[in-house]
């Protein structure tokens, strides 16, 4: 077993490192201790990093609407009524490796997906977690390549357990040296540092002149602060009675529990010294209360214990609660920081010993020395020097949806997507490649899709990603800027894009490449980007490029476009709802498979044939976005339907005018990707392909424009309602279960001219103005790949005031490709 790496606290690197701008605190509402620790971190962060933006996220809220209430109910029931079950749970975590691994995997995946939403929404530079389920979820995200910033686990309790630690995280903070062996056992290989107590700065020992730190007069009994946490577990009455019996006064919090308040009031009336007991519903100022008492009695060793130690108050742990309470008590006693009192008699004896002022003063001096040895502010400041991802346990496997494009790629039809991103540059600067290199150096480490490369495939082993931490701009950026226009390197933008995409991108060596082209006369530059399709779909690639290039920080932190959230289920009851949803999804998939099967093979088409090679021709056309939207509204359809109808009309005119004349097919089978991403889910920003597809027969015969649009609208609606998107996603998941060679063979059988003639995709983009280096990002033209035997692909992207159309075609089959942009504009006018 490897031991944890004990990291010394050093101020030098932190002082020389830029502070984080955004801090995400991951906490949870099981008691108040996790929130108290998060408040302590926020307080120190604002102290050492002025101007830092601090955001909290509640782990349980992200695990489902009813999860917080259920977790609290189960936890409370176990501690109050089934302590043996909670003890068994922790014993299994420590001593049964399969149980520990299974629990980590389930909770990590469950909480990790919710945390990924918070990460995508807030784009933090640093994450600090104070809640076990949050720590486990962050570890799951790191292992799956979804956590790219430094992540720290702050262990709130003195004694960590397996869900409080994960070697995939970058650092663990514990409060005592005695915790190190436990952390070693919980997470072999984890990095750990002993840090200050996770309490607010107001929790400090009273000055030496205050009565609480001096032997008091004989007529003033010591004051004991009795608190059993925010949920009031345990027998508060027995603790208060023992303290009163020993001769001390009592200040006790009933934690806003009316039943506990009634029991304590009865005790005050019945006990001979009951008038010396003050009962309050809640301590509004715990720092003053803790610092003003002479000793503290608690039963869990959590936040109350940490606050007592920070105030150098002698700590007595009475009848510790099951599980973590007993572990905390044992560790604090081992470290000489607390006295464990199993029952009332032991508590009364411990209080009686502390009745002697000099005994209390000796304990306080020992605790002062312990507190003075650590500084939480310095520990938080040192987090700025952390580097993310040094301890990822394993590389994420390639999902079936992504492997599709690795298996479909051939020398003749490389699977790469991308864009031409046009930027206004009236200054006509010559250093754009250098500027782009600096953006890559600074921003790519925070963009998961652009950090990824394919691990070199090994026979018999699954495909995996490599998450590259050190990005070399020279590997991804072509150093020379291409000049556009007469006398330049390329006569037109389309020629420049065609030449750039002629050399396929290598998913192992680079994964993606960029080049700058310039039309000096027009004052425009364009970033040409090509990305291997396995890295992501159109939305993911658009998002990654926006985050790389945009000046607007707010846009870089939010997904540029996504589909709407699915409608919430109306079924009540978690188990019944899950069963109904699963049955409904199975039925939808079955309908979708039947629909695709009934559609049958695509048949022959003038758009298919033997693709001649990777040098496909790329052309583009600029449409007025407002005009596209207005025409779609006039016909009562969305822009996707309208643009598909435009494509169908364009093909009708193109094929009808071929020489020699050929019969124009009544329909052309188009494969239309449909995103499964949502605006609120992590999928809106996640790398990879999260698209399904609808198979649509586009009407290419002669017909009026209104009829053609109505035909396309029905085809899209029928394919979607028939469950085709769900069916294609399910089929891909099944293919992912096959061995690599069988998977590749199956993909090549279904992804090509046998089942479709045309690829067509309409993607959302960004409507608000964006800038790069101060210049407006004026237009974006997508670039799509072909498929085996499929000679035409059309992509549309709505961007600002324009709709950019990118067309890829094999000139040996589609000889009229240069005519297509003009025909699209004419068809749009006919609409």
Describe this structure as you would to a colleague.
The protein is α/β, with parallel strands linked by helices. Helix content is 41%, strand content 18%. It has 29 helices and 27 strands. The strands form 5 sheets. A 7-stranded parallel sheet has the order 1-7-6-5-4-2-3, with helices on both faces. A 6-stranded parallel sheet has the order 10-9-8-11-12-13, with helices on both faces. A 6-stranded mixed sheet has the order 17-18-19-14-25-24, sandwiched between helices. Strand 17 (482-483), helix 20 and strand 18 form a beta-alpha-beta unit. The longest helix has 26 residues, at 97-122. The model is unreliable at 11-15, 209-218, 558-575 and 679-683 (pLDDT under 50). Residues 400-596 form the O-acyltransferase WSD1-like N-terminal domain. Residues 688-831 form the O-acyltransferase WSD1 C-terminal domain. It holds the Pfam family MGDG_synth. This is Wax ester/triacylglycerol synthase domain-containing protein.
